[in-house]
TrEMBL record:
PROSITE patterns linked: FMN_HYDROXY_ACID_DH_1 (PS00557), FMN_HYDROXY_ACID_DH_2 (PS51349)
Coiled coil: none
Protein name (Swiss-Prot/TrEMBL): Mandelate dehydrogenase
Single GO MF annotation: FMN binding
Annotated catalytic residues: H273 (proton acceptor)
Record organism: Dyella choica
């Protein structure tokens, strides 16, 4: 078999390995999924304007973010239920990130606990927080502090769960319900099924430890019911509770980014949640330049990145770092930790080639002058 040469090749491998219900959970988005295509298509409208006769015999992808060095301006985005894609998927992703000199952001909805990841991985670990219930929020923050996570990423664009019609048609639920259809599809994907049977069904590890939870917290956990009352005053209280670096994820307006900073955020992450929440939503790339002009703190971005050239475009527009979600999950689902590292290396290779082609010797020197 020819080795995969880009992210789309890994997506094809993933589609072959996973049963439809799991692949659709990974690959799908909200409603008609126009947003997924828009996230990718937006990069086609951003064109390079190369500088010539520049010495680009050596290129440098390294940078720093929030005072820490990075091998490249990439981070592994927070994603849930990775244990369905590969055994101990969260651990595999965290190790892949550490091996490539990049931060890993653990999701609240992970299948490995805050403590397990910290014990097993020596890297820059960040924790992403879903505000499901005030009691749970306090407990998760205490645990992340105790486990020495460096950065908290609070997600604010999941007020309610998105209308993901692929999941509804498939009857997707967690834990998985072993219907006759799923059993048959699992038999058609024996490698996935063997891994699942050998390692057991993944669980929501960060939730499983809440054994002393109140009745309303238990209900919220079972329904994965977000705290729709979380507002600016809630964010201010959260900032007082978390003593380390804090980023707000899900921002799509410059004025919201400014207010996050005014309340003490150390930066923002522009995101439309990979178009999994709201169809027909703008791409973060459409507001990136405006946000960068309005705040001096780091502006990170995700949603729709499939090429190293996409990353270079965002960096040239002022982004401080790019969160990689689905792209690295295709690598994980296809080949585990090795596949995740392969995808990260593919992206870095494409970034390096793009820098050479546009006449820029380092990511630190990227600016809008390289774009039309």
């Amino acid at each position: 078999m020819i080795a995969p040469v880009n992210v789309e090749d890994f997506r094809r491998l993933t589609r072959k390995r996973l049963p439809a219900i799991v692949f659709d959970y990974l690959d799908g988005g909200a409603e008609d999924e126009h947003g997924i295509e828009h996230n990718k298509a937006i990069f086609q409208h951003i064109r390079f304007k190369p500088l010539r006769l520049r010495n680009v015999s050596e290129r440098d992808l390294s940078t720093s973010l929030l005072g820490r060095p990075l091998a490249a301006p990439l981070l592994i985005a927070p994603t849930g239920l990775n244990g369905l894609l590969w055994p101990e998927g969260d651990i595999a992703l965290a190790r892949a990130a550490a091996g490539e000199g990049l931060p890993f952001i653990l999701s609240t909805a992970s299948n490995a606990s805050i403590e397990d990841v910290a014990r097993q991985v020596d890297g820059d670990l960040w924790f992403q927080l879903y505000t499901i219930h005030a009691d749970l929020t306090r407990q998760l923050i205490r645990r992340a502090i105790a486990a020495d996570y460096s950065t908290l990423v609070v997600t604010v664009d999941v007020v309610v769960n998105g209308n993901r019609e692929r999941d509804r048609r498939n009857g997707f639920a967690f834990p998985l319900r072993f219907s006759p259809g799923l059993v048959l599809d699992g038999i058609r994907h024996p490698r996935w099924l063997w891994h699942l049977l050998r390692n057991g069904l993944p669980r929501m590890a960060n939730m499983a430890q809440q054994q002393q939870a109140s009745l309303d917290l238990q209900t919220a956990l079972l329904r994965r019911q977000m705290d729709a009352s979380f507002d600016w005053s809630s964010l201010a209280r959260l900032r007082e509770t978390w003593p380390r670096r804090l980023l707000v994820k899900g921002i799509l307006r410059a004025e919201d980014a400014q207010r996050c900073v005014e309340l003490g955020a150390d930066g923002v992450i522009l995101s439309n949640h990979g178009a999994r929440q709201l169809d027909h939503c703008i791409s973060p790339m459409q507001v990136l330049g405006q946000v960068v002009e309005n705040i001096s703190q780091p502006v990170l971005v995700d949603s729709g990145f499939r090429r190293g050239s996409d990353v270079v475009k965002a960096l040239a527009m002022g982004a401080s770092g790019i969160l990689i979600g689905r792209a690295v999950l295709y690598g994980l689902a296809a080949r585990g930790e090795a596949g995740a590292r392969e995808v990260l290396r593919l992206l870095k290779r494409e970034m390096d080639i793009t820098l050479a082609q546009i006449g820029c010797p380092s990511v630190a020197q990227l600016s809008p002058e390289y774009l039309l």
